[in-house]
Amino acid sequence: MPEDRKFTRIKHLSPFSGSPIFSQVYRSAEDFYDRIAQEIASNIRPKTVLDIGCGTGRLVAQLRSRDVQAFGIEFSEDARDHILPEVRTYCSITTPEKPFEEKYDLVICLETILSIDPDQALTLIQNICARSDEVLFSSNPLDIQEAASAQIKQMGEWAALFAEYGFVRKPGEGFSKILPWGMHLHRTDLTASQLVNNYEDQLWQQRFESLTRRDLGISLQKELSSSLQDQEMINDLLVEKAQLSQEKDELYQHYLALINSRSWRFMQVVHRVRHRLIPLGSRRERWMYSLMTNVLHPFEGRGLNYDITPIRDITDVTPHSESIDIIVCVHNALDDVKKCLESIVKHTTPPYTFILVDDGSDKDTQDYLQGFSNQHDCQLICNQKARGYTFAANQGLRASTGDFTLLLNSDTIVTPEWLDRMIACALSDRKNGIVGPLSNTASWQSIPEIETNGDWAENPLPPDLSVEDMAALLAQYSGRIYPPMQFLNGFCLLIRNKVIQNIGIFDEEHFGVGYGEEDDYCLRAKKAGWKLALADDVYIYHAQSRSYTSERRKSLYQQAGKTLAERHGQKLIDEGVHYSLTSPVLQGIRARSAQLPYRREFIGQGKEAFSGRRVLFVLPVANAGGGSNVVISEAHAMRSMGVDARIYNLEEYKESFESSNPRLDIPITYGQIKDIPELAAEYDAVIATFNTSVAWISPAKNYNSNLKIGYYVQGFEPLIYPEGSSAYQNALASYTLIKGMVLFCKTEWVRQQVLNFTDSRITNIGVSIDTELYRPRPPKFNQSSLQRIRIGAMVRPGSPYRAPALTMSVFKKAYETYGAKVQLITFGMNSGHVEFDQLNTDFKWESAGELTPLQVASYMNEIDIFADFSSHQAMGLSALEAMACGAAVILPVHGGASDFARHERNSLVIDTTFETTCWDALRNLIEDTGLRSRLQNKALEDVCQYYPEKSAFNILRTLFES
């Protein structure tokens, strides 16, 4: 143990590192703890204090010298011998989970939370809050010099954890002046905690970023001014600094106005009166909350509002206007070189320039390059003897002057719009410094497989699929997510000119043989603050290096790995490899790409058999929902087959339907029920999608005797209604209402239900989902080992079969058992709705309310577990959407989910009749990280096979070939 662990860590991790400020204020550990002790004794004035992680006990000694009864605890037996003799009696060794025996006026926890296990950290915070009303807490949120710890959290997140137990920051600057990230917390009521948390998170972030950017700006200004490089970056940084300072001042003025307002002062009086009349933790307080929960709905006892930002909708790619230098390094392999250069000329839109580097090729290749250079006005650099790829690439990089430089291997084949799409990816974030595409063989960028038989996969294309076909499919079905990468393969790298100015060119000294230079370059760029991104809508074919044998390539790769570890650290490389191998976003891209040839095949078969047909779906819905989403995605797939598929909806639903479906690109007709028969006669087929709509289209045969009438049975609808009711009987009768009507459904369970009750012929067209919309995307929240597990569910009190009461009861158990470790978020209905009155809602949960499809896709990306405790599900679309986004799911065994759900393989399929079974399943997923991760990974792989083209084709075949 260092002489004083806390002081050493604080000094090393200070945001003032690199400047003399810290050392001027605190010349020693003794000076540092003297300042803290003085602040505590003078301004906080506690009688008893507990210092958690007391180190050598200096702070305990300083406090006791000021007549404060101070005690200390440490969590390591090794610490015992380092405690100062004069305070050894008052310091003890314990564990983070053990509750404190005494209650203290003040508990201190400085830079200790990161040194213990994440689960222990949550327990420690709970113990702290249980045994004191005031806390001094600090935990550095960012190590500027090195990679941050996996446990590091932002200050707003720490504040939120303490707020779970009623603690918020106490007004005053004393403690935060000693430590910029320190917090003086005290117990208060929940309403105040929400207000203070919002203010604290914003103000602290502005202040910390301002300090960091100031020091960074000064450092960059000195370094870059001396070399006369990147003046634009300095100016941008200074502008940002001024804007940040202005925003901070404005925020602080808003804060001052708030605390000086009449309403604030009035609320302070109200709180003081409330605390006198109804003390915290008293029986009166419990009675008050009970009254508010049961009588004052919807003001209290409700789920907190949880805002969902829709995912970014895909927009068309526009031609680039930036100047691009395309560098192609060549060493023989003339056939590959010809294919590469010809594909660039064919598929690249200007502006761009060629820089060709001939690295000691034979005469045939030299002659070809000279002729190509003369024809296309290229800059040709010739080496009489081969120097190796790294040296050749650097020759090209030195010659480049464009806004972007693109390094492209000579054994590649580029595809339409490749460069425009890669630049669009780079421009999506100003910090995207290097961009790479997908390929058949490009290590972590390979699709669909990255490894076979212990070597990188080659992924040959099917015989009937050209490189251009594959690229077109990928672009069509890509989510254009532009996921962040830890490494990018050097076969194709788009590099900002600013990156080259910032970090230079490839390292010839250590990677001159030509392997590992791109990994080293990527790691250097990331350390300099640049991001690596994947253009997931670009496919470039790579023939793999012909310059090395497979054995030679492996040998060079292994040697490069050793050099990279020596220069950057094995831990950093291992973390990058782990991300590249296990990232749900990358797994989702790979799994979806494997299905592209099959989707193309269904589209081709559909065009051949049904192109020119006209199909009308009667879809009487007001808002986006599971059934309507399926119809829309399959109608869209039909249109890709040349089928004129359209939707008919009721006029009164137009505004709400279009509002909840903003990305809809299918023709829709709105009208009245009476208009349906005559309109349907203009089509080859009309399809009812709900039991009441069958009767609406029944007269259509009078206008067109050849009209095919179909009924899309999305669930066994009689179960929606009370058995024996008129609605139940009408739903049951709808299956046989029209003679010759073609029935089809999504799952075998629904098919059997219809057969059992009606003997009607019905076809199972198969499960489907919009796999482009519902897919893993980079998380919006800060992931760390202390991050809460997010659990989602659809809760609609008006739909009894969805088991809303059971769901909320299980969620309450989860909150009572795990507290701040879990975050419970429902969707489907706003929490303030009157139907929530009958549910158990007296615990902390959040409601995302009613969501559009774009919002559902975002919601599913933010949860780790999705629970469906319905009595049955015709298909279980919401769970399927959650699986497609990378969540582990729980589904009812009763119903059609078994068509895609496999118990303990890609999901948990349980008997939801019993609450104990539901609770056990949820508890297992919360506690068993391995199980949760295994189900998530397998779900991502399995769900991709349920693309809408297959079901759309089956609908058409069922309608027109039956």
List the helices and strands and how they pair.
Elements: H1 5-13, H2 21-25, H3 29-44, E1 48-52, H4 58-64, E2 69-74, E3 91-93, E4 106-110, H5 118-130, E5 134-138, H6 155-163, E6 167-169, H7 174-178, E7 182-187, H8 190-227, H9 231-259, H10 262-277, H11 283-295, E8 304-305, E9 324-330, H12 334-347, E10 353-359, H13 363-376, E11 379-383, H14 389-399, E12 404-409, E13 412-413, H15 418-427, E14 432-439, E15 451-452, E16 455-456, H16 467-477, E17 492-496, H17 497-503, H18 508-511, H19 517-527, E18 531-542, H20 550-568, H21 570-582, H22 584-594, H23 596-610, E19 614-618, H24 626-640, E20 644-650, H25 654-660, E21 668-671, H26 676-680, E22 685-688, H27 691-697, E23 708-713, H28 726-733, E24 742-745, H29 748-758, E25 762-764, E26 789-794, H30 804-818, E27 822-827, E28 846-847, H31 853-861, E29 865-867, H32 877-884, E30 888-892, E31 908-910, H33 915-927, H34 929-943, H35 948-961
Helix pairs in contact: 3-4, 6-8, 8-9, 19-20, 20-21, 22-34, 23-35, 24-35, 30-33
Structure description:
The protein is an alpha/beta fold. It has four domains: 1-188, Rossmann fold; 324-594, Spore Coat Polysaccharide Biosynthesis Protein SpsA, Chain A (Alpha-Beta Complex); 598-764, Rossmann fold, CATH 3.40.50; 789-949, Rossmann fold, CATH 3.40.50.2000. The chain has 35 helices and 31 strands. The strands form five sheets. Strands 11-10-9-12-17-14-18-13 form an eight-stranded mixed beta sheet, with helices on both faces. Strands 3-2-1-4-5-7-6 form a seven-stranded mixed beta sheet, with helices on both faces. Strands 8-28-27-26-29-30-31 form a seven-stranded parallel beta sheet, sandwiched between helices. The chain starts with a helix and ends with a helix. The relative contact order is 0.06. Mean pLDDT is 85; it is low at 12-25, 143-150 and 289-301.
